[in-house]
Structure prediction request, 217 residues.
Amino acid sequence: MDGATGFLAPDSSVAFECECCGVCCASGLEIFLNTVDMLKLRAHFKRPTRELIDKYLILEQRAEYGAYPLCLIRMGEGGCPFLDGRLCSVHPARPAGCRLFPVIHYHDASRGEVFAFAEDMDFCPGKRRTEERPLTDWLKENVFRDYEKAALFQKMMVPLSRRRAPDEVTRGLFETLFDFDSAADFPLAGVYDDGADAMAEVLEWTERRLKSILEKL
Ligand code: SF4
Ligand code: SF4
Prediction:
């Protein structure tokens, strides 16, 4: 790990063991969802995406990220709405950000794909452990491979972070990446499946739609 920045090189080690205390989930940290996260949550609740967004999530853009579409958990006074006592009530469908925490993954216009270790972790007892694991093992243990397509979509959208887009494009991006059930041509309408075949079908649909939106910009 680069101690000054928190960035992790591919051959880095991660010295961390979670104590499952639930403090991070209750602390209101921002948890961003990707497309695969949304598919898993949709299958977990077996409810249309719009309903999940209205109840648990926020779709937004931020000035510093231009037209890049963001989806994050709507944190309340008690932190995450999925927190039940000290435990995660959607554990099998928890977002990649929660699986990898305190390792953070994103794509950046200047650095490309970035892995970093969360900073300001004084609240977390897990950080005190000293046993080290290679970052590659950390990613494997937390099934990072499931998120390859979602990471590709994030990479495809990096140029959006430096520009603005018309409202209809923004609507199309949110629908394509997160609010699938609101799209007239969504291939899994009414089917709440996150098996490998269903996942592949939806991700192909998303990739096709995303390419088409980005090509027109
Ligand atoms: S605060 Fe740290 S130890 Fe506690 S649940 Fe979160 S990551 Fe695990
Ligand atoms: S989804 Fe689960 S693991 Fe993630 S912040 Fe919420 S309660 Fe914690």
About this structure: Residues 55 and 74 are 8 Å apart (CA to CA).
